[in-house]
Design goal:
Length: 378
């Protein structure tokens, strides 16, 4: 019920063109890929739909809404089912019959829907002037294109020669290269990761060197590899594993995957978990009983629950507090010792300089006396 109300609120603010209201009331973990409203369209597609016939001022505001939706997780490539029944007709009020055109929404994404309207407008049916609509749609497409370009470095797939893949695999199979141990001032530092299974490490190395694997790992192995990739900030491997895990979410894997997504702040994976959990009866039952981990509950109640990550940080804070206090005391003692040393050094230097000046004056005076008595006065 709460998810349905959230969806209605989001749809309402989009319909009003109120970006500030949408930002204020949209849940932080809202699934922007779900169909909302009576027409059952994704949020991004609604923004395009409602602003086809709006004023120029409202269209300009809608561009900011498009930018924000892309930032929070709306997917411009997401397509409606091919048999989606919704269609929309627009026309000029001064000549409705001659200027009307219809756009079928089935099978379209937000990008292709904008192009569909643009193509119809450019036909100038009935000599209609759709120049303002065309300018608006081109601005929308420019924003959608820039978003796709920004994400292309992480999400684009490329084709490589088989010989290159063989080279990568040979490097990956060179296990001696992964067993390096460095000798440092603090002792030995090993590249081994003792808290990860061999299958998890192997999957991580497969993706690191080849972006693929010949194995068929389960979700536990993928989560171990994800932990390694996230720990070492290998963002490409993190994204690859998140995309794969999105397709593996079921009642059995949900808790482990959702907890990882929440603790590590993996937005794409978290959205997929929320989408599954909001529709799965077993997950909803656990949510009602309060049997889900705190980090998982955080995905569904972001405004109230404390995430598992925050709890862990609080525990670590308490554990580290005595250590930090001890280190602070040591620094204070070192500072006092340094101040005493500086003071003693100044005093010693002053004594040495005074002694030197005295010696110079003494021997200088003695030399003058001897010179005086030894001078042949006439």
């Amino acid at each position: 019920m709460a998810a349905a109300i959230d969806a209605d609120v989001v749809h309402g603010f989009i319909m009003l063109g109120d970006l500030e209201g949408l930002q204020a009331f949209a849940p932080p973990k809202f699934d922007w890929t779900q169909a909302i409203g009576e027409k059952e369209l994704p949020a991004l597609m609604y923004v395009i739909h409602y602003n086809v016939t709006q004023t120029e001022a409202l269209r300009k505001q809608s561009l900011k809404m498009v930018e924000w939706l892309l930032k929070v997780g709306a997917d411009p490539r997401q397509k409606l089912p091919a048999d989606h029944p919704f269609r929309w007709q627009i026309h000029k009020n001064n000549n409705p019959e001659a200027t009307k055109f219809i756009v079928e929404y089935g099978g379209h994404s937000a990008v292709s829907l904008a192009f569909a309207y643009l193509q119809q407008a450019q036909k100038r049916t009935g000599n209609a002037d759709w120049s303002q609509l065309e300018a608006h749609l081109k601005a929308v497409l420019a924003i959608l294109s820039s978003s796709a370009t920004a994400n292309s470095s992480f999400g684009a797939d490329v084709t490589v020669p088989r010989s290159t893949l063989d080279l990568w695999e040979s490097m990956r199979d060179s296990t001696t290269s992964h067993s390096v141990i460095f000798e440092c001032s603090d002792g030995k530092v090993s590249a081994h990761d003792q808290d990860s299974s061999s299958s998890g490490v192997s999957l991580f190395l497969d993706l690191l060197y080849t972006s693929s694997t010949r194995e068929d790992p389960d979700h536990s192995t993928m989560l171990e590899a994800l932990d390694l990739a996230h720990r070492w900030q290998i963002h490409g491997v993190v994204r690859t594993l998140c995309k794969a895990l999105c397709d593996m979410i079921d009642a059995k894997s949900f808790v482990a995957v959702a907890e990882t997504a929440s603790l590590k702040g993996l937005e794409m994976l978290a959205r997929a978990c929320v989408h599954f959990g909001s529709q799965d009866e077993e997950v909803q039952a656990m949510l009602q009983k309060g049997s889900l981990p705190a980090a998982v509950r955080k995905l569904f109640e972001p405004a109230h629950a404390i995430s598992g990550e925050q709890e862990l940080e609080q525990e670590q804070e308490q554990e580290q507090k005595p250590k930090r206090e001890h280190q602070q005391e040591q620094r204070q003692e070192q500072s006092k010792s340094k101040q005493n040393w500086d003071k003693n050094w100044v005093e010693d230097e002053f004594t040495a300089v005074s002694r030197t000046v005295f010696i110079i004056i003494f021997f200088g005076g003695l030399g003058s006396v001897l010179w005086w008595f030894g001078f042949d006065h006439e």
